[in-house]
């Protein structure tokens, strides 16, 4: 493989099969993380779990990300998923949404080195696959704590960490603190994946010099062709955004349960619409629609009236 690996970030309601299919259609990426999957719902046979478990279109590059505040549930979920093809399991230690924090999951694991270390030891025993963790800096800008935390995870058998270099509960307004990524990498034996605020294919390549792999989230939704651009894979000179949106809606209809269509389409278009000068206008129009075909009609009308919005630069 040329260059460092480029990975699709786990994003709730976004990193599902429809987005992966779209990315794969442009040449793919090196790994696709799932959206966070509740370990508890998975092992108790939740109604939608088969959709969450869908590892297509490139199962060998798929990473299951699990979330829970309960070590036993995480361990059981890993045992449950062990027979399914994937590149590894990832534990979410970065999510700071209040309902996740309240149950001890996501970033809450970062509040105790021992609790997190014991959890990893239990999960480690259940799988031979690659075990990784995605985390934040912690609850404060305390680099020594972050290093001690990660070293303990390393000792317990974590094979890779992804750092989203913000502290818990920090939203996207203030920039990501990439200096922490470079500093952490110097302290650990295991690879460190860099993530946070990457806005272009050129930036993916530039940032990859300071870490072992690059993970992108929102950019991959806005420009599902960004991986191909960063790798220099062949792309059309201009990307037809109407066609990309239509393909996404088709895939959503095929690959997700009906109850999820509206929320997932909205989430996708939150970022995809950043391609347009009239981003907010289009988001508002789409937000009023409940069905996928109505959304498609809105887009058709928009491009008819604003043909100059239809294309974005693709390959060289
Ligand atoms: C809508 C949305 C949902 C997210 N869901 C998850 C998640 O399920 N698990 C996780 O570890 N991080 C989640 N994140 C964080 C991203 O994986 C990533 O760390 C963050 O967006 C910064 O990367 P970016 O600037 O490339 O988007 C989410 C982010 C967004 C925007």
Largest sheet: 8 strands, parallel, barrel
Q: Classify the beta-strand content into a percent band.
A: 5-15%
How many beta-strand segments? Answer: 11
User: How big is the Rg?
Assistant: 19 Å
Q: What is the helix content?
A: 40-55%
What CATH calls the topology of the largest domain is: TIM Barrel
State the CATH class of the largest domain. Answer: Alpha Beta
CATH superfamily of the largest domain: Aldolase class I
| Widest sheet, order of strands | 1-2-4-5-6-7-8-9
Could you say how many structural domains there are in total? 2
Overall mean confidence score, pLDDT = 97
Enumerate how many helices there are, as a single number: 15
Element order: H for helix, E for strand: EHEEHHEHEHHEHEHEHEHHEHHHHE
User: Any idea what the CATH architecture of the largest domain is?
Assistant: Alpha-Beta Barrel
- Low-confidence blocks of residues: none
* Alpha-beta content class: alpha/beta
Helix and strand layout, with pairings?
Layout: E1 6-8, H1 17-25, E2 31-33, E3 37-38, H2 39-43, H3 49-53, E4 62-67, H4 71-81, E5 88-93, H5 98-102, H6 113-124, E6 130-135, H7 143-155, E7 160-163, H8 178-187, E8 192-195, H9 201-207, E9 213-216, H10 218-222, H11 226-231, E10 238-240, H12 241-255, H13 261-272, H14 279-287, H15 292-305, E11 311-313
Parallel strand pairs: 1-2, 1-9, 2-4, 3-4, 4-5, 5-6, 6-7, 7-8, 8-9
Antiparallel strand pairs: 10-11
Helix pairs in contact: 1-12, 4-6, 6-7, 12-13, 12-15
């Amino acid at each position: 493989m040329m260059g460092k690996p480029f990975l699709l970030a786990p994003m709730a309601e976004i990193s599902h099969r429809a987005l992966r299919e779209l990315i794969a259609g442009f040449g793919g990426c090196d790994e696709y993380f799932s959206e966070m999957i509740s370990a508890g719902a998975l092992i108790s046979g939740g109604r939608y779990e088969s959709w969450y478990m869908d590892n297509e279109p490139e199962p060998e590059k798929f990473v299951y990300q699990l979330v829970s505040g309960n070590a036993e549930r995480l361990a059981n979920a890993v045992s449950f998923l062990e027979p399914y093809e994937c590149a590894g399991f990832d534990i979410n230690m970065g999510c700071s949404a209040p309902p996740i924090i309240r149950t001890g999951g996501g970033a809450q694991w970062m509040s105790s080195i021992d609790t997190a270390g014991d959890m990893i030891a239990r999960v480690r025993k259940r799988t031979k696959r690659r075990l990784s963790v995605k985390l934040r800096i912690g609850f404060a800008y305390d680099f020594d704590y972050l290093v001690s935390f990660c070293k303990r995870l390393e000792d317990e058998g974590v094979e890779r960490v992804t750092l989203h270099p913000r502290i818990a509960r920090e939203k996207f307004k203030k920039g990501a603190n990439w200096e922490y990524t470079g500093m952490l990498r110097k302290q650990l034996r295991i690879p460190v994946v860099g993530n946070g605020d990457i806005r272009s294919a050129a930036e993916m390549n530039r940032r990859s010099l300071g870490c072992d792999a690059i993970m992108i989230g929102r950019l991959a939704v806005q420009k599902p062709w960004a991986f191909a651009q960063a790798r220099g894979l062949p792309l059309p000179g201009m990307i037809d955004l109407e066609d990309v949106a239509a393909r996404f809606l088709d895939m959503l209809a095929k690959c997700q349960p009906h109850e999820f269509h509206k929320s997932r389409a909205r989430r996708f278009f939150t970022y995809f619409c950043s391609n347009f000068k009239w981003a907010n206008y289009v988001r508002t129009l789409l937000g009023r629609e409940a069905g996928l075909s109505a959304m498609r009609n809105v887009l058709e009308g928009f491009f008819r009236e604003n043909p100059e919005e239809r294309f974005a630069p693709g390959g060289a």
